[in-house]
């Protein structure tokens, strides 16, 4: 039964990513959008692995709606990076709290990932400069929405979020 519940939650969050993929932030590539908020929420509420899956699939849906402007292989690498970013946000939130997780996600997705393209032929500093502001804006919106949704879920004691929090507290009590 837990497998069905998990798959249902992931499917709902991926569907929300598909909706977010159509809500674009104006940018050179057309790919910054509100697709990763469900991935960050999944990372916070369900854990790093499930959040990584939702964030990666969310990016691929966004790239698909934009016509894979950076080519499929590049977007597959970006999807892997988005998954890693969601996992890092989950780990940071568990260890340092939501504020630090927000800052980490903003820096990784808004600054570090586009900077990785500077040495790649065909991208360079111009690509970094053109993508910096749109990615920071999209990252802030996605992370902000995810944190607010997560806090709301915790406050309303949404069953599957609350059970995860209980497990975390019990694990932390033994340290």
Task: Walk me through this protein's architecture.
- By secondary structure, the chain is an all-alpha fold.
- It has one domain (2-173): Arp2/3 complex 21 kDa subunit ARPC3.
- It is built from seven helices and no strands.
- The two termini are 31 Å apart.
- The model is unreliable at 166-175 (pLDDT under 50).
Give the mean pLDDT: 87
Q: Which structural class best describes the helix and strand composition?
A: mainly alpha
| Strand portion | under 5%
Rg for CA atoms: 16 Å
CATH names the topology as Arp2/3 complex 21 kDa subunit ARPC3
Write down the CATH class.
Mainly Alpha
Count of separate DSSP helical elements: 7
| Number of structurally distinct domains | 1
What is the general shape?
Answer: globular
Q: What is the N-to-C succession of helices and strands?
A: HHHHHHH
User: What is the β-strand count?
Assistant: 0
Biggest β-sheet description: none
Cα end-to-end separation: 31 Å
Q: Can you tell me the residue ranges where pLDDT is under 50 for at least 5 consecutive residues?
A: 166-175
């Amino acid at each position: 039964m837990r497998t069905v519940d998990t798959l249902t939650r992931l499917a709902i969050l991926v569907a929300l990513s598909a909706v977010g993929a159509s809500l674009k932030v104006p940018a050179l590539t057309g790919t910054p959008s509100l697709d990763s908020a469900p991935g960050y929420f999944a990372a916070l509420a369900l854990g790093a692995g499930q959040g990584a899956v939702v964030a990666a699939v969310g990016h691929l849906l966004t790239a698909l709606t934009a016509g894979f402007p950076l080519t499929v292989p590049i977007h597959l690498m970006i999807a892997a990076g988005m998954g890693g970013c969601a996992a890092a946000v989950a780990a940071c939130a568990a260890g340092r709290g939501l504020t630090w997780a927000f800052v980490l996600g903003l820096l990784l997705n808004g600054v570090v990932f586009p900077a990785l393209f500077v040495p790649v032929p065909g991208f360079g500093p111009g690509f970094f400069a053109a993508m910096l502001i749109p990615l920071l804006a999209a990252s802030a919106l996605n992370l902000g929405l995810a944190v607010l949704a997560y806090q709301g879920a915790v406050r309303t004691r949404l069953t599957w979020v609350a059970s995860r929090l209980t497990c975390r507290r019990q694990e932390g009590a033994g340290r």
